[in-house]
Amino acid sequence: MSKHHDELDEKAPPKGGFSRRGFFRGVGVTSGAIGSALLGEQEAEAAQAGGAKQGPGAVPVALNINGKVHNLNIEPRVTLLDACRNHLDITGAKRVCDKGTCGACTMIANGKVIYSCTTLAIDAQGKQIQTIEGIAVNGRPHPLSTAFVNNDGQQCGYCTPGFVMAAKGFLDKNPNPTYDQVKAGLGGNLCRCGTYVGVRKAVLEAAKAMKGGKNA
Amino acid sequence: MQAFEYASPTSVKEAIGMLSSQWGEADILAGGTDLLALMKEYIHTPKRVINIKGIKELGGIAKTAAGLRIGATVTLDELTENAAVRTEYPSLHQAAMGVSSPQIRNMGTVGGDLCQRPRCWYFRGGHGILGQENGKSLAVDGENRYHAIFPKSQAYYVNASSLAPALIALGAKAKIAGPNGNREVPVEQLFVVPSNNSGRELSLAANEILTEIVVPSARGVKNATYEVRQKEALDWPLVTASVAIKMKGSSVASARVVLGHVGPTPVVATEAEQMLAGKSLTQDVATEAGKSAVNGAQPMSGNAYKVQLARVAVKRALLEAAKARG
Description:
The complex is a heterodimer. By secondary structure, chain A is an alpha+beta fold.
């Protein structure tokens, strides 16, 4: 097993610091109130202050994902992607390269597409995070999701959530794109099945379906 | 990655106080696009990570008397969206757009682009900055297709910055804050060649922070960047050439020609610069300048192709600049 997988690390107490992880193991997601109570008021306050040092053990981290605030107790080293997948069961974004190259983990933060695998969860606090789970419109698939199906914009499908989010971020900024602009706009996402042509057609179809409006 | 203590200070002074005078103790987090990968690979194992994005004075782009002031935490996206950058510094715009992933442009910062560590796979594989084993650089007899054609001393990696060649050609300065105050250096002086395998390739001290870049006015300076890369999508450049040309009538008064991704520091092509003086920017002159730029190249077993790429990159950057206003 390569040493990339920090779940392996997370099982070991961090070097050079007292770990609360063992204490919290099994607690999983806590509400803000429980989190603060367990930590003690002073520590929770310290964690809020900008310049205060936090960690290396678990600290309170509040994430606004798809319009809902989640209060977690996680170590500063936990990425936004791992916080979502391993701690919140928000598993649409995929962990593939885990080093900001493939785009399978793409989320939207304050309207900008980002690689969640290369963003620390603690650093994503205060931002409006949107994942593939949060783009449905009134319970119906987002026009991009529909367009991906219509245009065979996926084969194995593993890169698809990332592509859809990258495409959404792109269309929100460029509602009436050309084919070449779509190609360049999705330059941060890879598909090993090679479905790029279908993906680009899907984005163009979705742009028409959305009639230049932001939709969601 | 190894666990670390995290802080998000709100002033440069506070951030400097949290850094260590020793490399390896603390790391600065801005966009994180390089740092997190380095930490996941255990190439960097800092005990403390200091997020500087909350420091307001490190952000923003503004026109000043000295030129365009670009804060270190300005993202590549902010840079490419800036009207002054688009009109007056096409070279910088083209260089930043070469980072062809929107996600990286949204996250990555100007300071981070300059301070990112080399992509050399021997360095990333844990063989030290010079990629050595038993005192010998592994790239020389190994896989060197992306390595330097202008190696310096024992350094065969290439500087990974996309912006540095453009900034150097434009005569930009870097401002640096440290425990003993502020200093300013030309951007080319940010980069050094480490003397040993555990050395650093930046002239910054471990407790200094790159705070801003100041690019002098480029009014009347024709400038362009041409990048050659393997894929259209996200990839590091194979070769870039950035040029900045002052004209006198229809001929070149003075030229700056800087190559990226061909040496452990950006390479100033002095011979090409001298050759261009007094000439018109024709196809033949641009071709000649490309040839001059690669004089003295020392390719290895797998990267001789980069010599030709460099030649062509210089030629195309010059022809692009010739079309530019200014």
